[in-house]
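Table S7 (text form). Paired inputs.
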Amino acid sequence: MLLVAVNALVGGTLGQERTVLPLLADQVFHLDLYTSALTYIVAFGLAKAGTNYFAGTLSDRYGRKPVLISGWLIAIPVPLLLIFGPSWGWIVAANVVLGISQGLTWSTTVMMKMDLVGPERRGLAMGFNEAAGYLGVAGTALATGYIAANYGLRPGPFLLGAAFIALGLGLSVLFVRETHHHAKVEAANHVSVHAQAGSTLSNRQVFTLTSFRDRSLSSVSQAGLVNNLNDGLAWGLFPILFAAAGLSIERIGILAAVYPAVWGAGQLITGGLSDRIGRKWLIVGGMIVQAVALGMVAFGHSFGVWLAAAVLLGAGTAMVYPTLLAAIGDVAHPEWRARAVGIYRLWRDGGFAVGALLSGLLADAFGIPWAVAVVAALTAASGLIVAVRMRGSDHHHRPPLPVKLSVA
């Protein structure tokens, strides 16, 4: 539960930007092109994705706790850059730093919970972790919308982020304990062929297995990428779309908060549900629900329709988010699970950058509604890939496959 609380603070650190930064780009820095305005999401996505990869390797080598503390220390300058940045380049730089911090902190809380729970409750643990993080995002998006409406876009909203960083660092240094030894015990209890295969896998072998060669791991990786592709779109363009339709900052803040709030709270149910009914069809269904919600945003014109779409988008994302992480944990051997999680999160958070670039270019060329419609189609296609390629739902209760079988 301490790690759940820490991840809520990690989410809150990210949430300080959700409502305010798109409006800052538009109203303070007067960026005309959507592609330019979304550079901060590209910077965040690339920095976080790359750091996710290294977080797995570093936490295996040095332990989970040092990596977690490093992530909080790196976050310290972010609110200062956002408050005092005189040009858009400073805001982009802040998001590079934030991406590195989030890659270290969020990845580590995921790994630590996987260390602490057995395979039968992995989905439940991921549900708690991701719920805490995204409820943190949602609560902070709502709070910063209120602060921005009453006290201006700077500095008020970002003082909240500074408080979260201080609290998260304090909790991590003083109270969080190392968990790496739990993963080592779990690995030792595996059948010897698994342990031998796990210990001799190079980083390159783990990368190719997770990204391409294993049907389940690669299906999960592409679904994660597309999921965060549409989240990058929602983060960067939805507030601009809603503002152009004449909605107030308070209402934009509500819409920016409802989506991650439903996403966050829903994971308390869907994480444990995936332990009972299997991962595959929960992922497929969630991607289709997200596609429907994005279609409603694209073709809707009122607060009511957009509110319903935000609820649906959150519900669809809740179905897939903890389930994807748990599915990685099901297949990956404990000896290389942290690396597999890091590689999955590399692909997943790379979706932020792809989504921001793709949706920005499409929005500049055809308008925001068309950009949203194209991403809706991509999300549906991703769900179909999982339906065709991922191994069946009974797979999550089996021990990890020997690597030779897994590659086949």
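Next pair, protein 2 of 2.
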Amino acid sequence: MSIPISVRILSTWVCSTVLFGSMILSKPLLTDAKDVRVMSFNIRYGSARDGENHWEKRKENVIKTIAAFNPDLLGTQETLGFQKQYLDENLIGYTSLGVGREDGGQTGEMTALFYKTDRFEKLSEGHFWLSESPNSPGSKSWDSSLPRMCSWIKLRDRKADDQPIFFLNTHFDHRGPQARIESAKLIRHKLDELARGCRLIVTGDFNAAFQSEPYKALFENTKELTLLDSYHTATPDNAPGEATFSGFKSGVVEGARIDWIAVSDDWKILSANIDRTEFDGRTPSDHHPVTAILTHE
């Protein structure tokens, strides 16, 4: 089955699968138009020497995977400038935000995020670095091996004009254990500083497993701030393995869930899944995207 690159999928999608030729995607089911569909996707930086899995050989599959879920809000990680441009050109109906982690311009990977233009009105936006100098582009601290950052946006939902949504997307360091803990603490501090009165959505590649120290630091709830792990909240205990790093191999389920969607407790989590879409036995990235469908009264 041939699917155009620039495509808008009008049906919605959940965790069961359907086979189209050699492409396995999620099976469509209708959901309410007011629900908020969220996806977090580490798309693997496009300059990596990945051979048969190089960006040029899989970029169309990245678009197909995103379009199939049809997110209202999309957080991407490891997104270089030319990859962001490709997504901008091939995802219909989205506005994007992202800057390079090295200089706050176009240099280095971005934590680029996307939102549906006709649904949301931008109220404010920004970026900060995961360091002791968060307002300094390219800064790093603790034992971080590289500059790491967050991009965020505050939105008004035209379908539910009652409370703004604060959407933050990030990527934690892959080597520094202390940096991951401190980054989680910094994000909680920034949510309190920037997002009061908002419904919260946090997406990212956290390079840490369920119940790890960074996980506990992010989800250590207080009376001021309660965050829910959407997948853990919505998934039964007898669910299959929850690996989100695939290494480009299809069917990988055993391993750590290092990609998360966190939400404030004023959301109702209708579903949360690990999207194991594959094409001819290969995944569109070396991470499975993760998804959640949210609603509120």
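The first strand starts at residue 13 and ends at 20.
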